[in-house]
Amino acid sequence: MENTYLDGNNRDTQDPFRGLSGKRRTHLVPLVLLGGLITSFLTLAVIYFVSRKMETDVLSIILNFLPIPSAIFGVLAGSGYAIACRMTQFRASVALIFFIFVVQIGVFIGG
Prior knowledge:
single chain, 3 helices
């Protein structure tokens, strides 16, 4: 039996930008990027204010040889992309994931 589902679509050959209706959903890409950028900039603001309050660079704190604060802030910064994909039921393509990676590197360097 093929990988044909109840809606008649074959998931192996289906375009990742198409929803179950068969229509392209590329109009959701800017919304996904906006969701990620919002959480990224909010995270940068939190890092800035916490660093000023503690009078140290929060991202340089190492706990037992692990950069725990950096990992936590990285997850928070990138969570907007996942939340936006989940809310819009948009499946991220490889190209979009690569673009998100490049944007997050830019946010890291810019922050």
